[in-house]
């Protein structure tokens, strides 16, 4: 694990002149910020993600203060955070998956209530992202939806087998032909690949991602649009190069790829303590009431 990904340099404090300039810059930026009726989440105005390295440069006087910027988590930092949640935070993997999937299900309920069409197709990958999708499908079934699962690479791990069994007990069907299932659904959840994805898309998923790209119904991606690199976003060409889902649920914190995302953006995963978030240099969203998600933007702008 690269500890440099988790820390921000503090050995280059700004001079008094630089500090004063930062204050003046911040006040001027605040005066120019557009008004918004959105009162919760990460602030008002434009949502511009900031990496930890950029935060360090800013704090050393090398980057202008932007009061609307937010830290994003790299793949390595997100992996380290997950490990921290299961050690310092005392969570188990199934607890984290349950809460992540619950947040995804709530986002789907918000953007696509049952009266818009209750058929939900959930595309699940072989890892934790797929597990989040299975959990979300179970909750959606209890909300009154009719989910269908596409899960071609079923894991033999006990956790995933139990999640599948829970869905089977609720009479949730598993299908093998994704292209056919897309034609008879009202909404799709993309839970194939998460923040650890890199490289080329392997079989049987290239055709699935092409179908997502061409889908005529809304698509919600879990943590990352499948086929996207967590740092650099969509591939320049080939599978997934034109895939940009309608909704994105970032789990725990946004990832660098959000700068390329054009739809409505949510943060879910209401399980990070303030102390752990501070260690990884991001702020816990201001979740409201019973909500397991916060909407933070639409095409780079804060929601209303």
Automatic annotation (TrEMBL):
<keyword id="KW-0520">NAD</keyword>
<feature type="binding site">
    <location>
        <position position="129"/>
    </location>
    <ligand>
        <name>K(+)</name>
    </ligand>
</feature>
<dbReference type="InterPro" id="IPR036652">
    <property type="entry name" value="YjeF_N_dom_sf"/>
</dbReference>
<feature type="binding site">
    <location>
        <position position="223"/>
    </location>
    <ligand>
        <name>(6S)-NADPHX</name>
    </ligand>
</feature>
<keyword id="KW-0413">Isomerase</keyword>
<keyword id="KW-0496">Mitochondrion</keyword>
<keyword id="KW-0521">NADP</keyword>
<feature type="binding site">
    <location>
        <begin position="194"/>
        <end position="200"/>
    </location>
    <ligand>
        <name>(6S)-NADPHX</name>
    </ligand>
</feature>
<keyword id="KW-0479">Metal-binding</keyword>
<dbReference type="GO" id="GO:0000166">
    <property type="term" value="F:nucleotide binding"/>
</dbReference>
<comment type="similarity">
    <text>Belongs to the NnrE/AIBP family.</text>
</comment>
<feature type="binding site">
    <location>
        <begin position="128"/>
        <end position="132"/>
    </location>
    <ligand>
        <name>(6S)-NADPHX</name>
    </ligand>
</feature>
<feature type="binding site">
    <location>
        <position position="190"/>
    </location>
    <ligand>
        <name>K(+)</name>
    </ligand>
</feature>
<protein>
    <recommendedName>
        <fullName>NAD(P)H-hydrate epimerase</fullName>
        <ecNumber>5.1.99.6</ecNumber>
    </recommendedName>
</protein>
<comment type="function">
    <text>Catalyzes the epimerization of the S- and R-forms of NAD(P)HX, a damaged form of NAD(P)H that is a result of enzymatic or heat-dependent hydration. This is a prerequisite for the S-specific NAD(P)H-hydrate dehydratase to allow the repair of both epimers of NAD(P)HX.</text>
</comment>
<dbReference type="GO" id="GO:0052856">
    <property type="term" value="F:NAD(P)HX epimerase activity"/>
</dbReference>
<feature type="domain" description="YjeF N-terminal">
    <location>
        <begin position="78"/>
        <end position="284"/>
    </location>
</feature>
<keyword id="KW-0963">Cytoplasm</keyword>
<dbReference type="Pfam" id="PF03853">
    <property type="entry name" value="YjeF_N"/>
</dbReference>
<feature type="binding site">
    <location>
        <position position="226"/>
    </location>
    <ligand>
        <name>K(+)</name>
    </ligand>
</feature>
<keyword id="KW-0630">Potassium</keyword>
<keyword id="KW-0547">Nucleotide-binding</keyword>
<dbReference type="GO" id="GO:0005739">
    <property type="term" value="C:mitochondrion"/>
</dbReference>
<dbReference type="InterPro" id="IPR004443">
    <property type="entry name" value="YjeF_N_dom"/>
</dbReference>
<dbReference type="InterPro" id="IPR032976">
    <property type="entry name" value="YJEFN_prot_NAXE-like"/>
</dbReference>
<dbReference type="GO" id="GO:0046872">
    <property type="term" value="F:metal ion binding"/>
</dbReference>
